[in-house]
Amino acid sequence: MLGHKSAGPSLGVVVVTSGLIALDGVALAQPVLEEIIVTARKRTESLLEVPISITAFSAEQLDRGGFTSLEDLSFRTAGLHYNKQGGQIPGRFNTAVRFRGMDTNQSAASQQLGTVFMDGVYVSQGVAGIDFSMIERVEIIKGPQSATYGRSTFAGAVNYVTKTPGFEYKGRVSAEYGKFGSYDLTVTHEGPIVDDKVAYMVGLRGYGTDGQYTSNADGGELGRERTNSVTGILYAAPSDDFTAKARVFYSRDHDGPAAGMLFGSRLSARADGSANAGTNCFSEFQTNQRGATADYYCGKLPKVDVDRYIAPNTALTPATIALFRASQIRDPRDGITRPKIPGLPLVDFVGLKRWQFRSSLTMGYDFADGHAISALLGYSDMRASWVRDFDLTRAQNFFSQDPQRHKDKTLEVRIESPQDRRLTYSLGGSYFKADFVQQGNGGLNVWGQDGGVTQAVLNPNPPPATIVLPGPHPFMQTNFPQEGGKTLGVFGAVGFDITEMITIDFEWRYQSDRVTQDDRTLPGTDFTDKFKSFLPRATLSFQPVEETNLWATYSEGNLPGFFNSDLAALSQADLAAVRASPTVAGQNLSLFNEEESLKNYEVGWKQQLFENRANFSLVAYKMDWTNLKTRSPVDIVDQNGVRRVLNLQFNAGNAEVKGVEFEGAFAASDNLSGTVSINYSDAQYGRLTCGFGPFKPPPAADCSNNKTARFPDWSGSFSTTWTDQFRGDWNYFLRVDGEYFGKAWNEEHNFSWIGKFWRFNLRAGLEREDLRLEAYVKNLFDDENYLAAARWSDFSGRSLFDFLTSQGVAVTPPQKRAFGLKAVYDF
Question: In angstroms, what CA-CA distances link 579 with 567, 588, 594, 802?
Fold first, then answer.
């Protein structure tokens, strides 16, 4: 029966579906689908048994599908969306994992809706640089996972499970080369150190691609990426009762300017013609309290000739480089000299450098009576710096340098009862500590590189003086806030087989989040707050027959509150001016925002069919999301007569998220197999006050009843593979993959949108037991729809504060059709 009995094949099965089934052996094996093993609930379970919405990819499927990043997997997973444009600006710097139509515009590490883990250890940033060649499987778990994983799994979690070394010598070389200078070379090897006691595995990877686009501003290459990484794993089994696995991962990313562009509004000071001019969203222009006219981009983003249009700057002037290189920068607003974050890579070019070190140690001991105890220790250190063309246009105006450093430590201990009994239980404790140092949202902006720009700096009554600044000069030089956090958790689970068919599980976590922010330079402006939560998940599962698993789940998630640090140093007069601003009028502005909460109601059905030649997973859910946080700029002239823009956040409203996720697979014959996924997500705000909206009389911009941003209502995928004997011990295969992405709004106002497109990939090749040769085409029909888009202020104006009223859309252009070759040799 299903339930708490751990049954199923070993971890070495070959996954065929994007998450539900596996084929024994190679592609020509018997057409019987086999369950795979997952640890999504931190216990070993068959994928068919586990009563949650989960998609899993094995090492073999990652390899055969040509998947190299979470972005590839997101197009194959119902309920997940992930791309290189995590918020607004394209690139591999700040990326965000989105589940089930939920989206956030918060950049702080503790405020992400979903989190990636590696062997259960938190991964803050740098997900795009993780090497799949050392991954045994990827588990994508949808819905609140706070009871299992704790912090930052508000909407879901992704867990990369690394391979475990074996006790015989073997290795693999995989080499890939494609159009646009793309390459991916990996070498792995494993074997015993002490026979049947200690084994090792080591992997090396070099990945890169040249840019597919050239900037029309200066002829520079756009989209170049480089990653070099090494992974080492030790596995020890000194006795039948004790096992330990230690893993270290180190990588370096070195990217050039990302491929991104701005569709500016009609009022853009540097719009370059009709192709860059959006349609205004209102029958008449909106004006703010200063009488400035506001404009917003509307409608479906037009298709443009990207090769002729894309024009961010890729080079810096010597004066700008000197500002970025300076070990200390004097803030012209207050005269304070502030140091750079120590220990970070120096970036004095447009692009990214990132170093990351990640490690873990897992240990397990089985007692004679069937009880087991396990421990997990983890340590990570990610250091990155990024220089970007902030305005994404040919105007040499805003460049920003965004350094950041993430360090975290994880400790978890768990004891569990024997899992083959009617009553099962577990109990554990966890400790998590994180330090996230950054230069601020937007970093150090160097403004006016091309000179000839103006800045209004005096009180507008009388009208402000206009000062010509030859540039470049630092603007919005921020502090170096250190966001910290300590999370203590006590968690457990109880399961009971009520009958042979019915099982009830109750999982819970009591969690205490202590969130801190220290700007490290100005005394008296350090903040701390504590949030305590009880996070349950209750599941009732029903197995009327062996091939069927039905379940219903209720679960909760939380997202800790955060700080409005810009409010702390304001005088009473300035605070009154902020509260009177129409942008935030009527909102409950406070130093600490309340935590967000999510309640999830879910029913599911997993089924094997036709003597295990097909199976599927069907999940329906409804989630209630309250206390959503949003950010909004507030433009004031402070008591010293200096015009300032504060970046404030507040609890803005709530949302209701409903949807259906379907994933299935079939093995129609010895030759033909395939998969399919369909996702429907109806995510809609109830009450919501939008940030970065049109200026209106109080209350501020109302986005109530709008759709959530950057997640389509409909998406899906399919894959079909035909395999047959070619000659001798050689087989041939042909694989076709299709991916559909529906309409997705680019911002909470629902002004503009992208989507409604199909993309297809094709793979074909020959293989024998130890060698596979294949050719592929990505984006077979050269689809020209954009990969991602998001609202972004138009910073290309000639006046410093034009961005407050001129809004555009930052766009990630499509990946062009690309041909490639791949060879895999096992020895």
Answer: 11, 9, 18, 22
Question: Can you give the pLDDT at residue 259?
Answer: 93
Measured CA to CA, the distance from residue 522 to residue 248 in angstroms comes to 37
Q: Which pLDDT score is estimated for 462? A: 43
Strand partners, 437: 405, 482
| Residue 523: exposure state from Cβ atoms within 10 A (0-12, 13-18, ≥19) | exposed
- CA gap 754, 742 in Å, rounded: 8
134 closest CA partner among 50, 205, 36, 226: 205
In 3D, which of 50, 33, 280, 247 has the Cα closest to residue 135? Answer: 247
The pLDDT tens digits of the residues spanning 519-578 come to 554 555 567 778 888 999 999 999 999 899 999 999 999 887 777 767 766 778 888 878
Contact 8, 46 (CB under 8 A): yes
Contacting residues for 10 by C-beta, under 8 A, at least 6 apart: 37
Per-residue tokens: 428: 């554990």
Q: Is 166 left (phi over 0), alpha (psi -120 to 50) or beta?
A: beta
753: left (phi over 0), alpha (psi -120 to 50) or beta: beta
Of 623, 577, 631, 580, the C-alpha closest to 603 is: 623
Residue 646: predicted pLDDT: 77
DSSP state of 280: P
Q: Are 16 and 675 in contact (CB under 8 A)?
A: yes
pTM metric for this prediction: 0.88
Alpha-carbon separation of residue 70 from 75, 145, 644, 676, 824 (angstroms): 9, 19, 39, 18, 21
Q: What residues of the chain score a pLDDT lower than 50?
A: 1-29, 267-278, 280, 282-293, 454-468, 477, 521, 695-699
Q: Which of 40, 69, 36 is nearest to 158 (CA)?
A: 40
Classify 317 as helix, strand or coil: coil
